[in-house]
């Protein structure tokens, strides 16, 4: 009986310990609505006010700021934007009022040693064009606000008097569509801060390629062109890039705009990014009979031809990054070979005992080494399937209609 009680007590202690760890991992941060956003005409798709979540820094990190763009795909026509508007992707009215902070946003020093005590901000995504549009649709019955650029400006202006204006260190980051937003707003972010601020930018899973799909169609180029036209994004793209390209709208692709970004930049991406695998290389329109379905859900099930195409995609990504890899003195790079999408916000992939590694460096260590100039941090993984540290995060195959939720 005594032994049973001891075992039960030990089990309870272990449960409490796990709950405590999980509670730390799942820091819940309340939403802040930008009340003055209407003065700038900054609205979500449905007309609601934009928002962010701020967890204050402390100690040595009290004057350092990390801003993280939320991801969530895009809408490319009136129909998809109308469908998106009354959801958490188009309205703060339908968003959770608390947001979990983990990974790069964690406040736990053992899980996020370089940024745990910074002011950490998550910018909620509700415009459908990577915080870059500026337009409006009104047919007398329905109204849609394409005001991502103004949302970005409104949030920044709300944060400046809260301490951002006096930041000594700052990092602008983002995941997926938020990672793309980092490319689009990096230099503009720098312009808001004092000249002596150490400002850098990090894109996680946002290096979307201008690549032909398996049917040799430019599916993603057409999709982005529709997003750019509908939302009025082109006017907010890098002017140096748009002036020199025959098709200025292509400057929404990071491989073209990266050349003109002056702020130090870190690119975190998988060479087999699952979003790009499922929607750029093998979109549903290019595989109507589902020949790639097994391969999409399990890389080990890919046949020789499919693996060859996947390795070709990796090669094209590395080619697009070659100049940055070889000649960017202040840039950083972590290109692993995991079937994943977004790796900085999840504690498992950011920093844990079994996190993905390249040359025995976790993503968190590589980013920290780069930001604090501890060492040069450009790492490119060997080709699949050589990396045994990967967390292959393969979702179920998605349809085109699911694009906004990635």
From TrEMBL:
Keyword annotations of the record: Cell wall, Cell wall biogenesis/degradation, Hydrolase, Secreted, Signal
Subcellular location: Secreted, Cell wall
Subcellular location, principal: secreted
InterPro entries given in the database record: PAE/NOTUM
UniProt-listed Enzyme Commission number(s): 3.1.1.-
Organism domain of life: Eukaryota
Keyword tRNA processing: no
GO biological process, one term: cell wall organization
Protein's UniProt keywords contain Hydrolase: yes
An example molecular function term from Gene Ontology annotations: hydrolase activity
Signal peptide (from-to): 1-23
Function: Hydrolyzes acetyl esters in homogalacturonan regions of pectin. In type I primary cell wall, galacturonic acid residues of pectin can be acetylated at the O-2 and O-3 positions. Decreasing the degree of acetylation of pectin gels in vitro alters their physical properties.
Family membership noted in the UniProt record: Belongs to the pectinacetylesterase family.
Name of protein: Pectin acetylesterase
